[in-house]
Amino acid sequence: MILGAYFRLIRAGYVLAREGALSLVQELPPALAPLRFGIWLGRLVERPSVRKTGHVERLNKALNRLGPTYVKFGQTLATRPDVVGPQVANDLAGLQDKMEPFDPALVPGILLAALGDKAAELTELSAPIAAASIAQVHRARLKPAGGLPKTVAVKVLRPGVEARFMADIESFYAVARLAERFVKSTKRLRPVEIVETLDRSARLELDLRLEAAAISEMAENIKDDTGFVIPSVSWDQVAQNVLTTTWVDGIPIRDHAALDAAGVDRRALASNLLQSFLKHAIRDGFFHADMHPGNLFADPRTGDVIAVDFGIMGRINRKERRFLADILYGFITRNYRLVAERHFEIGYVPKDQSVDDFALAIRSIGEPLHGRTASDISMAKVLGQLFTITDLFSMQTRPELVLLQKSMVLVEGVSRALDPNLDIWTVAEPVVGDWLRKEAGPLGRLQDLKGHFDTIAEAAGRLPIIAAQAELALADYHAGKMEPRDRLMRGAMLALMAIAGVTLLVALWRMLTL
């Protein structure tokens, strides 16, 4: 099994090198400098056409051949023409929803096996409307017993996709372990933990019942919002490999000509998309983590953003949401000391580093961004700077934030394509600032108190156990069953238990009387 993973890894490396993927690597940050020789070696097998013209024309097909996990990586690159160049980004855009569908003749049998009698309520099944790496979508007519017929979207997993995904992930684990073992400078990036995060995400994506639940949760979160629309679920037609939702009509968000022809304000659309994402991440802690252009549409009547495909969702807790908001607000207001302090407080930068020096390093990144439009900012250069700085201060990668970081890159890329002059900081400020002001107000303080109260109440619930243990220890002590040394240790334990109990009770009393 391990040998198979290494073989697939070697094959993937050869295919990517052959199709010119390594030519996209312009420069490496210092932490990855040991890989330079490997990249030079890999470029020796490039197609002559790539070496001669510098054009990467077949990367799309190469990623498609390698499997669904590699396709996901290509989808992310497709939103970053500033990183890979407009020609490669345009080629990779075909990975988003234009892949070859599997045989439509298999679909009725799949629906019957998954849904049983409820499959009969799905009629007028169309040819595949969209096909991606994980699944394909069909339009159908849902005629529920005793209900009104309606048009729906039926998403069906590709047969055998689970096995391919798991094989890809196994190869990723292999390369992560190799990196940790042989490239010591990458250890702080926690490559194995990052792959574990991707592994969990992939397993969730391969169960469409969980996607249905994600749609339901997000619908509750945004029920009072405007400008961002998602479909609703038909639960009777949901199974592990089948998902049925209401059909949504809209213009693909990447079809700029169609948006312009329909009179959609692209600047407002870009602003709406970015602000909606920040609301979901910062306010709710639950966000769509696969917002590539193939999953986004615009309603020509209202200008609303319509999102589909909720297979990959991100979740961050309140502490991480506060960290994200403070970091963004620090950059917006140029309060680099705040940005630095938050990194230290949450434990992302070791305590033995200098807050002042870290704030100065953050300033070197933030200052060049202000007063400039998205078209003037090279995100590749900014990320390279950040990589260098985090390496300098021994900052470790946070695996729990990997999906958030990836999603922010996607959303920023799509928004930037809609409006090249988008001022990211100005657009973000209302969402971030309003949330932070709310957090600093009475409601935020009440939530803090609730968190503290829950922690202390849980600890207080253990007091009877502590008391019982102390009583038994005291009985043993009086019965003279212990040696002098044991008596001394038990006495110390009793004292510690008493101190712990009193501390908990005092803390609980203070919480109740604040």
TrEMBL record:
GO terms for biological process: ubiquinone biosynthetic process. SUPFAM superfamilies: Protein kinase-like (PK-like). Keywords: Cell inner membrane, Cell membrane, Membrane, Transmembrane, Transmembrane helix, Ubiquinone biosynthesis. InterPro entries: ABC1_dom, Kinase-like_dom_sf, UbiB, UbiB_kinase. The chain crosses the membrane at residues 491-512. The keyword DNA repair does not apply. Residues 95-342 form the ABC1 atypical kinase-like domain. Coiled coil: none annotated. The keyword Ribonucleoprotein does not apply. Pathway: Cofactor biosynthesis; ubiquinone biosynthesis [regulation]. It holds the Pfam family ABC1. Belongs to the protein kinase superfamily. ADCK protein kinase family. This is 2-octaprenylphenol hydroxylase. The lineage of its organism: Bacteria, Pseudomonadati, Pseudomonadota, Alphaproteobacteria, Hyphomicrobiales.
